[in-house]
Amino acid sequence: HNQQQVIAQHIFLTQTMLKTMRARHEAGVVLSNDITRYELQLSELELMQIQLNDAVSIIQHALQTMLHTDRFLVPDSASIEALYRQLEQVHNEAIWQDRAAQSNLDIHVANAQQQLAEQELKATRAASIPSVTAIVREQLAGPYTSDFIPVDANINSWFVGIGIHYNLDALWKNRHAVAQAAARKSASAEQSAFVKEQVSTAIHAAYVRFFTAFSEVQTQQKQVVLANQNYDLVMKRYVGDLALLTDLLDASNMKLTAEMALVNARISLIFTYYQLKYSIHSL
Q: Partners of 98 in the beta sheet?
């Protein structure tokens, strides 16, 4: 859609220039060959417009089929412009690394597995630890009435005890289980560190691509400004018979190339931004 807008603007500029050239041709200032060459450029632009319309139609049909809808989908240009303003505030890789630690699912899974391995090791070791039981009891007994001669006496008894239970069999069998649990804990810790390294590397690569795309947009914006200035200057010189038609055509092509490159750079910037968000699982 952005490329369609660029082509439409250049078609309008070319048509306006052709009107001026035809008027000057009638005045005997411009050769018919110049008009023919400019009409050739107009036909090339119109062909590009047809190709872009066909491409939009193909993408529209694919999206409608995928989404099971008959609605005509139009890009949300307002959201895109707001996104461009947001992108200027995310030039800090450390922020993305911190976000990954909070939202990346691979890191969460690796941390959970490491915690499970640690809990398993603790539970396995606990089987080798003797269990200690503390007992405190108090009992009040009334008079003896079951003897031949009942005794009127109240007896209050109490005692404190400690019980220790230890499974000697676990001393031999559980040692191997503890070693296996410790090995699994070590492996899970290494796996967690490996996952974090992989995520960090992926985020760094995605951020570098994003920063490169952002720099490319800034460069292309300058290129568009320079191309427009060059086009305006050459056009004034051509109208004043100080430049050739080839100079004007070159300036027009340079302007078109710069504007199309800017459109593609802006699209690439958005794409790399969402790739960066995907790498931290925050889409």
A: none
Bridge partners of 159, per DSSP, are 137
The dihedral built from the CA positions of residue 251, 235, 14 and 21, taken in this order, carries a sign that is: negative
For 169-195, write each residue's pLDDT tens digit: 666 667 777 778 888 888 888 888 898
Token representation of residue 81: 């412009």
Please count the other Cβ atoms lying within 10 Å of the Cβ belonging to residue 108.
14
Q: How far is CA 206 from CA 101, 174, 201, 221, 278, in A?
A: 16, 47, 9, 23, 9
* pLDDT tens-digit map of 49-108: 999 999 999 999 999 999 999 888 888 776 776 777 677 666 677 887 887 878 888 888
- Length of the chain measured in residues: 283
Asked if 2 and 266 touch (Cβ cutoff 8 Å), the reply is yes
Quote the tokens at residue 171: 């001393």
